[in-house]
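Our consortium's second objective concerns turning raw sequence data into structural hypotheses that experimental partners can test. To show how far this objective has progressed, the report includes one record in full. It was chosen at random from the queue rather than selected for favorable results. The single chain below, 213 residues long, was entered without modification.
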Amino acid sequence: MTEVRIATIVEGQGEVAAVPELVRRVVAEIDPGIWVNSPPPFRIGRDSLIRPGGIERAVEALVERVGPSAGVLVLLDADDDCPAKLGPELVLRANQARSDVTVATVLANREFEAWFLAAAPSLSGLRGLGPNLQRPANLETIRDCKGWLSTRRTDGRSYKPSADQAALAARFDLRMARENAPSFDKFWRDLRRLVTEGGGSGRESRTVPAGGG
């Protein structure tokens, strides 16, 4: 197998566990011959990340920790910002800070959990969710996807990212989410770019034993 290093910057506690798992799942679909070495994410609050100097310092700190050979994926919620406007701005700033590193920025529209809603039928019966879940319309315009998940639980509990996000990220149907959530499709395409840019600074390849590590 070929090893590719992808380091991540996230904003939420739940994403610290969920995003590396999701990165590994998507890359395995893109190319089963690639094994992803994904260090623990660098966590920073959304407001701190987008303010002047924020993403620049976050990328610098992450590269200092993992080295310049890793590709960097920044993932945050779009909330009320336009992903098509804020995303390119953040990429430009990150590239100006570290032009020697390949950086991709993805804004989940409006939040990470919208990707679960995009593949809702595949999560039926998991983590307290009821059976026969139906995908909502206009799911990337929903302001409270976490609340949507809580109201579909039948075990009397609320959805909590720190407890549930990684487990659902490990199970939701990737292709269904890609078909129904444009921001997840961008996540997929950006990962493909990070792992397939031959000779790019984001790719470090060596032969590793089957099964990784």
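The partners drew two points from this record. The chain has one domain: 2-198. The longest strand covers residues 2-10. Both points have been shared with the crystallography group to help prioritize constructs.
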